[in-house]
Amino acid sequence: MSTGTVPAADPTADTGVLLSANGLRKTYGTTPALDGADFAIRPGEIVAVMGPSGSGKSTLLHCLAGIVPPDEGQVRYAGRELSALSDAERSALRRSDFGFVFQFGQLVPELTCLENAALPLRLAGTRRKEAEAQAARWLERLEVDDVRHHRPGQVSGGQGQRVAVARALAGMPRVVFADEPTGALDSLNGERVMQLLTEAARETQAAVVLVTHESRVAAYSDREIVVRDGRARDMSAMAGAV
Ligand SMILES: Nc1ncnc2c1ncn2[C@@H]1O[C@H](COP(=O)(O)OP(=O)(O)OP(=O)(O)O)[C@@H](O)[C@H]1O
Question: The whole model's pTM is what?
Fold first, then answer.
């Protein structure tokens, strides 16, 4: 997809790294939410961000996605430092290159499931017919094609979350940010959503940053970053260092 107003760049520069954090720190008032995060994510990698409640996982995800600016440190995506972009450029980048799945779907209640799944494509300028045709393929893939004309209020939690995953993937993002994507689902539905999300991400070579406190969900990842008291540790790097 086009990167909107952001100049095109080789997504992995020459380092093989798609997204990286260096010395990230963020404080809300006197609460240190993030107190040091350094790691790199490659294209197609599925990385679980784990840790107890309040440890800083969501803050880390929001900094990585350019939603929240860190107080210190840098986030680099495809060779570009996010803080060097204007707000409009960061928004364009989020629309073109990133997909999002949150705990409670956050679908637009007035739109049908099909219109919801097509929304990122429509916002990126794709014509309705083409956007909905692509979205319909993702709804089929996520096994919720039968509710395409329903509104979010008329579907189950599991169906709504699959629609949210279809919406995140329909724009062919290079990174999917998923914050507790199965947190509101029973274990069977949660497992299925994780299977479908990770299969689709592997196929499209999208990287996934998956915030979860459940090891059953983290088991779908390639590696884990553990956040404790705002400090993020890359467990695979530590294992390699031993
Ligand atoms: N917008 C905000 N304003 C003030 N404090 C915040 C804000 N967002 C997060 N915090 C605080 O920062 C710390 C880290 O929060 P964060 O939501 O990142 O943790 P988390 O690991 O994702 O938690 P959970 O698993 O419960 O969702 C917490 O102490 C939280 O209260």
Answer: 0.89
